[in-house]
Write a structure and sequence with these properties.
By secondary structure, this protein is an alpha/beta fold. The protein has helices spanning 13-22, 34-42, 55-62, 82-102, 138-151, 176-184, 201-214, 230-241, 252-269, 277-285, 292-298, 305-318, and strands at residues 2-6, 26-31, 46-49, 67-70, 107-111, 158-164, 166-168, 190-191, 195-200, 220-223, 226-229, 248-249. The protein has a 7-stranded parallel sheet with strand order 3-2-1-4-5-6-10, with helices on both faces. A 3-stranded mixed sheet has the order 7-9-11. A two-stranded parallel ribbon has the order 8-12. Helix 5 links the parallel strand 5 and strand 6. Helix 3 packs across helix 4 (82-102). The longest helix is centred in the first third of the chain and has 21 residues, at 82-102.
């Protein structure tokens, strides 16, 4: 069938487009730049030039589509321009919903975030966990707002929500993927032993496709295969590569002070800091998610974290980002 994808050249969108093409669908993907359009075409899809706030481009993208995957969004901590994140994540979602409704699209899969679960400190979040009532970051707030818009979609448009945890795997060298690479390069002498949940990049793509095929309208599905600590991750990297990674683990108070100092210094010059009080707050809280509903209801089988890291390391080496003996 004909399928439309926003964010088709991004971390989640690229493997999703590939999986859709391999499944035999006719795929069109929105691309903001010529470089993004080239990536879309290399994955086997047709590129539609435009952005989320361009109604004409969105109408061209979704016209005649049976399914729409709204993947595009800004995912970062310590943003310099918080308004831009709001425009993309919230107003962009509103625009995609409106265009999809006008075009008579049957089903829309909305890529939210596991962060919208809002679990309390130390709690393992599920799709039914009551939200704590406050947001840890601008990203969490904007994704919560966009998810609410999606679940209140106009009559006639079926919406299924997927909530990925930290997406890792071949093709990701930004965000937390960049931190993983820097740790392996020995560029992070200090670490904080945060707890996080992980989903393999291909499992995330398969979860989107399964949600379109089998998900219930108005429901959300956590995509999360494992819960790890940073110490767990370092141990796995050592076992895979044979390297011993030397790093000192910061105490919570020291970590908070460091985040405040670096965030303040970067704000003076208007640059995005590598860490700030917002990022410290997220990492100290940690994230623990139960993604078993996607297995029970959608049939998603998760890759082990060891295999995800092994594939990621192989890709780092092949891409020339990492050298190993």
């Amino acid at each position: 069938m004909r399928v439309a994808v926003t964010g088709g050249s991004g971390v989640v969108g690229t493997p999703l487009v590939r999986h859709l093409v391999e499944a035999g669908h006719e795929v069109r993907a929105l691309a903001r730049t010529d470089r993004s359009a080239d990536r879309v075409r290399q994955a086997g899809a047709d590129a539609v030039i435009g952005d989320l706030l361009d109604p004409e481009a969105l109408d061209r993208l979704v016209g005649g589509a049976a399914w729409v995957f709204h993947v595009a969004g800004v995912n970062e901590l310590c943003p310099v321009d918080r308004d831009a994140m709001w425009r993309v994540n919230v107003e962009g979602t509103r625009a995609v919903l409106n265009s999809s409704h006008r075009a008579g699209v049957g089903r829309l899969v909305h890529t939210s975030s596991a962060a919208t679960i809002g679990e309390r400190d130390g709690e393992i979040g599920t799709e039914n966990t009551p939200h704590r009532g406050s947001h840890l970051s601008t990203y969490e707030r904007t994704k919560s707002e966009s998810e609410a818009l999606a679940l209140e979609a106009p009559h006639g448009l079926e919406v299924v929500v997927v909530n990925p945890s930290s997406v890792q795997g071949p093709g990701r060298a930004t965000g937390t993927g960049r931190l993983l690479l820097q740790a392996m390069q020995g560029h992070l002498p200090f670490l904080y032993d945060a707890t996080f949940s992980l989903v393999d990049i291909d499992d995330c793509a398969r979860g989107h496709l399964l949600a379109a095929e089998h998900g219930l309208a108005g429901e959300r599905y956590l995509l999360s295969g494992s819960i790890l600590t940073i110490r767990d991750t370092v141990s796995m990297l050592t076992a895979i590569t044979g390297r011993v990674y030397q790093a000192r683990y910061l105490r919570p108070g020291v970590f908070s002070a460091l985040g405040w100092a670096i965030g303040s210094a970067y704000s003076v010059v208007g640059r995005q800091p590598p860490i700030c009080p917002e990022a410290v707050r997220v990492m100290r809280h940690g994230h623990r998610y139960d993604g078993s509903r996607a297995t029970r209801d959608l049939g998603l089988v998760y890759t082990t974290p060891e295999e995800t890291f092994r594939r990621t390391i192989d890709w780092f080496v092949t891409a020339g980002l990492l050298r190993l003996p």
